[in-house]
User: What shape does this take?
Amino acid sequence: MSRRFTAAVVGGGPAGLAAALALGATGAHVVLAAPPHRAAGQAPDNRTAALFAGSIEFLKNLGVWDLIAPHSAPITAIRIIDDTGALLRAPEVTFTAAEIGLDVFGWNVPNNALVAGLTAGASKPDSGVTLQSTRGIAQVEIGSDAATLTSQEGDRFEAQLVAGADGRNSLCRTAAGIATRTWSYPQAAIATSFRHSRPHGSVSTEFHRPAGPFTTVPLPDLSSSLVWVERPEEAQRLAALDEAAFRTAVEIRLQGLLGALGEIAPRAVFPLSGLTAERFGGNRVALVGEAGHVIPPIGAQGLNLGIRDAAALADCMAEALAAGRDPGGSAALDAYSARRRSDVTSRITTIDVLNRSLISDFVPVHLARGMGLVALRTFGPLRRLAIREGLQPSQSLPSLLKPDGAALLAERSQRPPRHSAA
Ligand SMILES: Cc1cc2nc3c(=O)[nH]c(=O)nc-3n(C[C@H](O)[C@H](O)[C@H](O)COP(=O)(O)OP(=O)(O)OC[C@H]3O[C@@H](n4cnc5c(N)ncnc54)[C@H](O)[C@@H]3O)c2cc1C
Assistant: This one.
């Protein structure tokens, strides 16, 4: 016999956990079907994510930020250094949070700490989330008033809405018949973190190099994470160096910025690619996180988008519940898709143009990028607009990204709040 829920979330990555908690906060009964965190045989995720102020507000609204903050570090400034070796070198540009009236742009959060904190939140009895540990969902059948999910172990449950947060090869997306557009870049990113002797001063530094950016992001104390984009074969070669040789290679690229380097964490290589779903919801399935969009790790947008997906889906659920409508029906899913379209499309386009301007050999493209940086350096209003838009869209923020978002969401779904801000 199958159990019935308002919503089933498939996938326990950061976006799936965020969606489960956000949907639980509307009062819906939610099941999260996912392999346990750090299941045997799974490689540890050594990435970090720079999460902007709205995403941090989301974590506060769901009562989990206090668990995650001790492992994270604030980012108060972002510095861009042109290291392309182009004929006309663009000026160094530093954006500070203070110039748009913020204390911090956001925080750099280790993925492992984020997943552990969100899992702890979803495990609380008042979260509204039932954790269904499984090796994976094997089948999603779309019905007229509910979808039926079958796990690899043979457990079955029904849900009016399926939040497909099952990553870039999403089974839920296929089951809903949602097509995608995919593309790749001649680049791969090495992700790691390291200790260093000089303080980072809470500044993230992006060296724009001919094969892509080389970016350090602050972590607690004297440590930083690194995302180093190179041609794929060069990325593999560098990642395979022994620790001492890799340390020297990083020190050379850093040009002394963080002093002498100490211990380096394990490295992982991620080929750079892009994906966007033709719509973000349909046939009882809403796509959340990388199931709906994959974006290169440039400008720290991927998971911030995934968190905004989760928050927007919670608003759609709250509105459907308050109106007595089917939360997995076409009206609710069309609304979700429409709310996510411009945010996702604009980020994908901007990051694509920025990335291609770096790797292009065409001199006028370098000139245009350099002039863009000059304009950002000298023209205050443009600078502030660029910073604000880089952090999150200025229009129609979902409830959970706003201060006191849990109460706003409860008001939308016309029920008392389940969580209070941390
Ligand atoms: C090097 C690097 C640096 C990055 N830095 C940033 C950054 O600074 N800021 C930022 O915002 N983003 C960043 N990102 C992007 C961010 O890491 C991703 O957006 C995020 O990890 C995606 O999370 P997700 O939950 O959507 O997908 P995933 O983490 O892929 O999770 C999907 C989950 O679904 C599960 N799953 C799959 N199929 C099934 C099934 N059938 N049944 C059940 N479960 C299933 C998988 O096991 C997995 O746990 C970075 C990415 C990279 C590569």
